[in-house]
Amino acid sequence: MRKRPVIFERFPNLEGAIPWISLGEFPTPIPKLEKLGAAIGLSQLYCKRDDLSHPEYGGNKIRKLEFLLADAVRLKRKSVFTIGAWGSNHILATTILSRKLGLQPIAIMVPQCGQEYARNNLLANFTLSCELNYAAGTLSAGCKIIEVYLRHWRQGSRPYFIWAGGSTPLGTLGYVNAGLEIADQVKEGLLPEPDYIFCAVGSCGTFAGLVIGMKLAGLKTRIFGVRVYDKIGANTYQAFRLAGKALRLLRKADPTVPVLRLSRSDFPVLHDYAGPGYAVSTVAGKDAVQMGKDLEGLQLDTTYTGKSLAGLIDLARKDGLNNKVVVFLNSFNSRDLAKLAPAFRPYRELPEQFRACFEGKDGRSE
How far apart are CA 164 and CA 173, in angstroms? Predict the structure, then answer.
């Protein structure tokens, strides 16, 4: 297990200049998927197992929170608040890790489809005493952010705000580091240099960070982002813009970090697999989840990783990836939520507006 981020090993001047705290278990494995690869015509298919990034709750958010929560601690904040959907993996990861650091988690949540994982995540947050605040939709979420912040500020606490998905320039460094980690695994002979990496694209931080990491490592690997969220937030421009900000943050902290030439063409987004909306499952996504489970024992979800794998499978079957080294990023959590608490609190104890997640209602009022 690595004691510090690869990015600090590559650029030692960043250590101390960039806040970071060890929260996960890295590097994550990157095994070859022999059976799934054979089924879709890929002889060199690998999986970056970021679902194993933490012993209690894995997924891609752990890498981002190692930087973001370190900043909250550095600023001596007592609480952390963030925003996401009812089933947000980011909110649950923030709740779990904030508690470990003695920080009070606060969440603003907007409705989504009531899948089982969403219900479980919502109850886990509730059981772990995350303060839940309801927003009817994206339009009212901005007002709710201000309302919650001012309420806590008046009570003498200035919460540390983390944007949705942890996709800020600082949070994006988590996946800059992941890109450098993959490059190290290539050097160690665990896999050949990848031609392509496929990842789900929601808030863009994972996607943007991987592109920077590959470029800093000197690899020619191309990252394909598979959109799983609305186009307004998950697109080439947003990823390009976020990557530029993250790179400027790095260079401000350490001018020896190379100047990279980024262009929008470095951030290709596949839009055909998102389905009718965020968290709404697709047939292709469900099939991909089942294939991953049956052939490789992977635990995926229909909101993010199932759609991402569906995009990979479709391109492979269209002969677009022949003889290529392909890496699929499993950014979901594969840990058992039951281990987080002896028993989840019953959903009927939730604030009334959140109970719609369990009662088959939409939950939106706008």
Answer: 15
Q: Is the omega angle on the peptide bond into residue 27 within 30 degrees of 0, that is, cis?
A: yes
DSSP SS3 for 340:
helix
Question: What is the C-alpha to C-alpha distance for residues 145 and 134, in angstroms, rounded to an integer?
Answer: 10
Q: What distance, in Å, lies between the first and last C-alpha atoms of the chain?
A: 47
Rounded to the nearest 10 degrees, how much is the dihedral formed by the CA atoms of 51, 116, 81, 68?
Answer: 10
Tell me the fold of 61-166+340-349: Rossmann fold (3.40.50)
Give the tens place of pLDDT for each residue, 45-98.
Answer: 999 999 999 999 999 999 999 999 999 999 999 999 999 999 999 999 999 999
Query: CB neighbours of 40 closer than 8 A, spacing ≥ 6?
Result: 312, 313, 316, 317
d(CA 186, CA 339): 34
> Hey, is 157 helix, strand or coil?
coil
Equal CATH topology for 6-59+167-329 and 61-166+340-349:
yes
Amino acid, res. 169: P
Residue 328 has pLDDT above 50, yes or no: yes
| In the chain, domain spans | 6-59+167-329, 61-166+340-349
96: Cβ contacts below 8 Å, ≥ 6 apart: 54, 56, 57, 128, 340
Q: How many helices, marked H, and strands, marked E, lie in the chain?
A: 11, 9
Separation of alpha carbons 118 and 297, rounded Å: 21
| Model pTM score | 0.95
d(CA 165, CA 330): 16
Cα 197 to its chain centre, rounded Å, is 15
Our CA dihedral for 306, 311, 312, 314, rounded to 10 degrees, sits at 120
Orientation angle between helical segments 305-317 and 283-296, nearest 10 degrees: 90
Cβ neighbours around 334 below 10 Å, total: 17
E-state strands within the chain? 44-48, 79-85, 104-110, 131-134, 160-162, 196-201, 222-227, 269-270, 325-329
Domain 6-59+167-329 sits in CATH at 3.40.50.1100
Q: What is the C-alpha separation between 38 and 350, in angstroms, rounded?
A: 46
pLDDT in tens, 104-122: 999 999 998 878 888 999 9
